[in-house]
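ingest -> fold -> write
write: protein_1
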Amino acid sequence: MSILGVFKRRPAEAVAKKKLDVSIKEKKQNSSLKDKLLNTSKLIKHGIGSIFLGKKKVDAEIFEKLEEALLTADVGTSLTYEIIDLLTKELERKELKDAAGVHAYLKDYLYRLLAVSECDWQIEKPKTGPYIILLVGVNGSGKTTTAAKLAQHMKSLNKSVLFAAGDTFRAAAIEQLQAWGESLDVPVISQHAGADSASVIFDAIQAAKKRNIDVLIADTAGRLQNKTHLMKELEKIKRVINKVDVTAPHEIMLVIDANNGQNAMQQTLEFNAIMGLNSVCITKLDGTAKGGIVLNLAKEFELPIRFLTVGERAQDFKKFRAKEFVDALLG
């Protein structure tokens, strides 16, 4: 397509195309998860691991700095004190000889803590219709962009994809998803703004069945977890999907903005109680010092963490790997 052709696109479409267009130059500039986490967090910029650099003796200063770093990263008071207490006890038992030993022990502990949330995602198209992924979350968490990145991931697995524009509330949400759809060559089922979301998703399921689509990704409107009437709308969507296919939705994924920090814990608690979550996706980790929330979520809910997003490019959508995350956090 010519440059003129790009400028003729609708504004939302042009933005969508720009966000997911992976050029050769971008691939060369692709950064590791560690690089992304280092970019914008003062805590991780210097690395929790740097607390142990050049230290041989374990003293009170190390534990004070570690406690401060963990709290700043939004690991949370309960888990932070649990970690400090555990390290202190190991030190008293003479199991840890020096700062390097403390560092290694902490890494191993966090590997094991996060291992429960590292799960391979088996996506098998049911005989009854498409594999249905329902994206839920609060306003501004990045559900629509996550839908696009998920679609690209599914296409890389040679699966056909259909979008359901279930966010009929937010201004321009439908147009945004349509722009992603055109950019990715993924069809979109939509209705007018303000339409019933459950009706839109019902139509999308029927369309997916007729077209023999493998994966249906349903976007939904953002809603605060403490707004009862909005959460009931989500329950309705789930009921409608379940009536069409008793095994569906096959994946209810909570999209969490890492910038929300400890509020993400309450979001997960409320959405899980009402919807029965299957997994979470954590977005915007490149722009926050609160990456420690990943640790808290894993410990408290033991839900699979499917993906982390650390930027707006396609390759910034990363499968969650416990070891990679801990290595990025601790150095």
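write: protein_2
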Amino acid sequence: MFKKMMAKIGIGSAKVDLILKQNEYTLGDKVEGEVILQGGSVAQELNKIDVDFVLHLRTKQKEYRQVVSTISIPIMKTLRAGERQTIPFTYDLPKDLLVSSHMVAYYFATNLDIAAGVDSKDNDYIRVNPPARFMNILRAFEELGLREKHDSRAFDGYTQEFEFFPTSFLRDRVKEVEFVAAIEEHQIRLLLELDLYSFGREVEIKQEIVLSNELLSDVSRLADYLRDVMAEMAGNPEAYLYHRHSMPYGHGNHRHGGFAGAIGGLAAGLLGGMVISEIMNEIMEDEGVEEALGGAEEMIGEEEGEEDGGFFDDFFGGDDE
């Protein structure tokens, strides 16, 4: 009787533990592991086990958590004292998530619901990386002496931006290189931005480029292509101030509309669908949203003299010229 009473308040109660085969994954990967149930000092009735896959998003002023999906684990209703049960666990990661960074994290929250007792919980963090062909873009930037900044990959409320600073190539002319990206089946699109030094002020120039899978498979060729693109932009900045200049590689002349799967794309409706939409609704209800998001409105066409729509009309299929 005493053991049962103690189990009801969590002492000597059943425990749950999610054991994953690894803690680092690529978008779209299958996560595999085991849910371990360990019986306590007495037999207990169990209601259910749920595993939530949770997005943990940090902004400058607040943290947000949103359940991406919930996986229900089938269990026996009674767990005997000292009994150990092992249940297989699998989950397919979505292909359109934000990738992990200092501002974006993911974890599995496992909850064992014990009838008339204290529930057992377990959190397991994982890292979500871009696919290999996207990683080759980062390697090409590194070959060009462009180093990713410590605060790169932040989510500003609209996009997940990748930010770099030059250490050799373009160092005297460019303060910062940024891009947002959309991953498609046969290519990756980048909206590339260069922040130039110009008579004591910064000038932002932008260009959309389309990188075929063939090009993405060869880091050296990719680095050469990106070098040519950025050198042309920096050498002729007036041509890239306010207009879209699509420069597809290997696919002919390509015009675009919207995007299906996006890394750092327009979050509401693309990156995880309602997941980001719900977080954005919560953010927008908070006081001081501009400070929390780090001035995201500046990225959507509020620079003086920019055409209506600006940054995102260029990237997400504004009026074609």
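write: annotation protein_2
Residues 60 and 117 are 38 Å apart (CA to CA).
The first helix runs from residue 2 to 8.
pipeline exit 0
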